[in-house]
Q: What sequence folds into this?
């Protein structure tokens, strides 16, 4: 049996238990990532004893998944297609959930821009991009021995990356069914965060992950949403010109919320913030990251949540809120309603006082 060495997102992987014929096919479709077998691989993946069609598909998925897992907490990773402008270091990451057009856009635009990945755009703190020029996963394509995972060369994609690829823009895809020419618009920061976080891997493992994400967005001059209907209408010239025009067109302002130790309460129990990974404030609204999910709170809920490290009883909260927003005949009822909603979202809890 034979094995193939793969370099994926900087991770050394050996794929083992392949026949010579299977090695030839696998190496051909993973050509841009193939290396000599590693003497000390980071990961070893064995071919399953099943049909080659299914085994090939599983191997392609496993190499991708294991490379991503090995970089959790190390790189910032977006579920995105990545394409680099020819004769440039600049890479655009096209962010979207699975099955919404990333691979189709890659297969089309990748004939004019250099293919980086159709699955993940991974970067370090310097915006350097770690490529994963894996077989492209095209839904509905089922060619012999490939099951829809076709090597970039088989799709005639450009693969000659520059030596120092660097992320220049993030574009959230909004594919519509009605015929429409591509249009790009800069997203408000809070909308960009809410859209990007569900399409990221391991953000909660990065210290102050939400703040780091906002810093990245600020470095890039914002995040863009592209509304389009047909991938064939998207051109490198349009992307380069429009992102350059829109970049930095609106100021990006946010505040990182450090975790504070709560004050001791004079009551037997206190209302406290539940455990969370990170939080930021944008335009008076708090965004809380916990277990890979981000929630944006309304203005009143944000004000209440921000008070909890120092104010931890209902009576104290009511007094402070009325001083800030003014009194209301139903102030106590409104407060209790918001507290109950925050509790249902597992953003606050009642804990014994120390």
A:
């Amino acid at each position: 049996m034979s094995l193939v060495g793969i370099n994926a997102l900087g991770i050394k992987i050996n794929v083992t238990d392949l026949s010579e014929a299977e090695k030839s096919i696998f190496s051909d479709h993973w050509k841009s990532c193939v290396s000599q077998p590693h003497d000390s691989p980071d990961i070893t993946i064995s071919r399953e004893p099943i049909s080659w069609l299914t085994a090939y598909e599983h191997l392609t998925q496993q190499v991708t998944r294991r490379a991503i897992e090995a970089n959790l907490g190390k790189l910032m990773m977006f579920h995105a297609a990545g394409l680099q402008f020819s004769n440039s270091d600049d890479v655009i990451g096209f962010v979207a959930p699975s099955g919404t057009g990333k691979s189709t856009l890659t297969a089309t635009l990748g004939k004019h821009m250099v293919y980086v990945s159709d699955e993940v755009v991974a970067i370090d703190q310097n915006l350097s991009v770690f490529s994963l020029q894996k077989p492209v996963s095209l839904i509905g394509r089922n060619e012999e021995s490939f099951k829809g995972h076709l090597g970039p060369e088989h799709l005639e994609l450009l693969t000659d990356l520059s030596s120092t690829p660097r992320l220049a823009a993030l574009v959230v895809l909004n594919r519509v069914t009605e015929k429409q020419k591509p249009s790009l618009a800069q997203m408000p920061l809070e909308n960009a965060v809410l859209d990007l976080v569900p399409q990221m891997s391991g953000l909660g493992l990065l210290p102050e992950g939400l703040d780091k994400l906002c810093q990245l967005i600020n470095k890039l001059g914002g995040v863009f949403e592209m509304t389009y209907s047909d991938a064939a209408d998207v051109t490198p010239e349009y992307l380069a010109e429009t992102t350059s025009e829109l970049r930095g067109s609106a100021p990006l302002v946010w505040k990182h919320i450090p975790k504070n130790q709560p004050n001791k309460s004079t009551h037997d129990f206190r209302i406290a913030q539940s455990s969370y990974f990170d939080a930021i404030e944008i335009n008076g609204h708090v965004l809380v990251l916990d277990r890979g999910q981000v929630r944006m709170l309304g203005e009143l809920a944000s004000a209440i949540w921000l008070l909890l490290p120092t104010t931890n009883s209902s009576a104290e909260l009511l007094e402070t809120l009325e001083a800030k927003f003014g009194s209301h005949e139903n102030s106590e009822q409104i407060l209790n309603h918001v507290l109950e909603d925050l509790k249902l979202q597992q953003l606050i809890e009642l804990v014994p006082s120390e």
